[in-house]
């Protein structure tokens, strides 16, 4: 079985996962997450910040579809991993939605007086669906393209999605960190499991 992610692509993905894990260890009042959210959300009045996340997420969605269509036609051997990764993103999104209901954490803009629009109380904060989808897209793009440069560009776009959500007060830093981890980890685990099962099935067929 060929390696899912090229060696040079693993570093950027690992950096984001590890940073997210560190931030998630301190999601309490006065923590790094809350302090950084306070600082970044003070920029919520900057013109266009509310469109930052939406615009970057749409760009990632378009890039994902383009990469999948191109790879489907030109690299049949990558189809299973890529498709499984896409299914993993959908599962990560569903998990994110259910975790919101379970944790029921209010958004920063629901607790602090911030400029701009804020979702109504009951539309919970943790984890960030935007970050889940954005970083899930990064995984699928990485599987499809197998190019470190494109992976870095996708990660930068996903980071802007997360940053925009924090700046407008819709999420804490730890919200987008957990969303990023879900978006990367669930598709990755699913991809590895499916390809491992296929490899063993092929090996059993050859040995029979």
Topology:
Elements: H1 7-24, H2 32-41, H3 49-74, H4 79-103, H5 108-111, H6 129-145, H7 148-167, H8 173-207
Helix pairs in contact: 1-7, 1-8, 3-6, 3-7, 4-6, 4-8, 6-7, 6-8, 7-8
Structure description:
This protein has 208 residues and is mainly α. The protein has a domain of 99 residues. 75% of the residues lie in helices and 0% in strands. The chain has eight helices and no strands. Helix 3 packs antiparallel against helix 7, helix 4 packs antiparallel against helix 8 and helix 7 runs antiparallel to helix 8.
Order of helices and strands: HHHHHHHH
**What oligomeric state do these chains adopt?**
single chain
End-to-end CA span: 19 Å
Low-confidence stretches: none
Shape: elongated
Helix content: over 70%
Radius of gyration: 18 Å
Give the tags.
208 residues; mainly alpha
Q: What is the structure about, briefly put?
A:
This protein has 208 residues and is an all-alpha fold.
């Amino acid at each position: 079985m060929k390696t899912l992610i090229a060696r040079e692509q693993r570093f950027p993905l690992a950096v984001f996962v590890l940073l997210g894990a560190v931030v998630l260890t301190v999601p309490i009042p006065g923590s790094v997450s809350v302090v950084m959210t306070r600082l970044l959300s003070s920029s919520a009045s900057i013109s266009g910040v509310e469109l930052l996340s939406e615009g970057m997420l749409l760009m990632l969605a378009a890039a994902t579809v383009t990469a999948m269509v191109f790879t489907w036609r030109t690299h049949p051997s990558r189809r299973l991993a890529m498709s499984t990764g896409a299914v993993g993103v959908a599962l990560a999104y569903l998990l994110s939605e259910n975790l919101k209901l379970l944790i029921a954490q209010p958004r920063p803009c629901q607790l602090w007086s911030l400029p701009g629009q804020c979702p109504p109380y009951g539309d919970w904060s943790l984890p960030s669906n935007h970050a889940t989808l954005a970083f899930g897209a990064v995984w699928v793009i990485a599987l499809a393209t197998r190019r470190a440069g494109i992976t870095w560009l996708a990660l930068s776009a996903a980071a802007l999605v997360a940053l925009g959500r924090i700046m407008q007060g819709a999420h804490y830093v730890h919200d987008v960190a957990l969303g990023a981890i879900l978006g990367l980890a669930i598709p990755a685990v699913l991809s590895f499991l499916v390809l491992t099962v296929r490899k063993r099935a092929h090996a059993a067929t050859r040995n029979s």
